[in-house]
Design a protein that fits this description.
- The structure is a single chain.
- The protein is of the alpha+beta class.
- It folds into three domains: 32 residues, no CATH class; 53 residues, SH3 type barrels; 123 residues, no CATH class.
- Helices cover 32% and strands 23% of the residues.
- The chain has eight helices and ten strands.
- Strands 7-6-5-4-8 form a five-stranded antiparallel β-sheet, with no helix packed on it. Strands 1-2-3 form a three-stranded antiparallel β-sheet, with no helix packed on it. Strands 9-10 form a two-stranded antiparallel ribbon.
- The protein is globular.
Length: 230
């Protein structure tokens, strides 16, 4: 499979890691390996889907699956959002999975507003009456806080603003213009971020590239995840 043999050394959740993009399950996931590649470690972070176990006082929550919302340093516990409630859970009672929460239509709309703005440009997110300037400190804080639950990290943010031409906008343009071979070449250079961007915009941006037969044949992992949704 295309992504199974690729590793990327990047900044991820505050530390230097090798990022290995594998077959996607439901949404997407990242396997994070330490520098010596000897072990696999999945870090707890907002948006991570987890399972709960070992609770004594509230055993009814054991075996349930939830989403990490925030970590309280004063208590040393994570707030975990379940289907009908939120609870605080000690780290020892949480097992991380390799999946993140899926964005709803509102989050997708906000992400598209943000992703369309180049560094230095002012833009507005209508549904929350918020005006930001892309690339400054306030913008970064907003993006990291509002999209961490869906997989946003330092690496993704930095990738968006590495140069004057936003790579995801260039990728979208190539797809719109049906320049799929060039688009696939760009995807090979930046697979982790671009696939994440594709997943964040599904429903409001039509990814015609997944209908391109060479794409389907070359990247079956991506097609089987994104193609069936599109």
């Amino acid at each position: 499979m295309f992504f199974s043999n690729i590793r990327y050394k990047q900044i991820y959740f505050g530390g230097e890691r090798f990022i290995n993009s594998e077959l996607f399950h439901n949404f997407f996931f990242y396997t994070i390996q330490t520098k010596n590649m000897a072990s696999t470690r999945i870090e707890l972070s907002p948006g991570r889907i987890v399972s709960i176990h070992g609770l004594v006082n509230n055993p009814q929550y054991n075996t349930l699956t939830g989403i990490l919302v925030d970590f309280h340093t004063d208590t040393g516990r994570w707030i975990v959002r379940l289907r009908e409630t939120c609870i605080r859970v000690n780290c020892k009672n949480i097992t991380a999975t390799d999946r993140f929460a899926k964005p709803n239509a509102t989050i997708t709309h906000r992400w598209i507003c943000i992703s369309r703005a180049s560094r230095g440009c002012k833009f507005k997110i209508d549904d929350i009456d918020c005006t930001l300037t892309a690339g400054n400190d306030e913008h970064k804080i907003f993006v990291m806080e509002n999209f961490a639950m869906y997989g946003m990290c330092e690496y993704f943010y930095n990738t968006m603003y590495d140069n004057d031409e936003n790579i995801h906008i260039k990728y979208e343009t190539l797809c719109i213009e049906n320049k799929f071979e060039k688009a696939m070449k760009l995807l090979e250079q930046n697979p982790v971020f671009l696939i994440w961007h594709m997943m964040m915009t599904i429903g409001q941006f039509h990814w015609s590239i997944v209908e391109y037969l060479p794409f389907k044949n070359r990247y079956p992992d991506i097609y089987n995840t994104i193609g069936i949704i599109v």
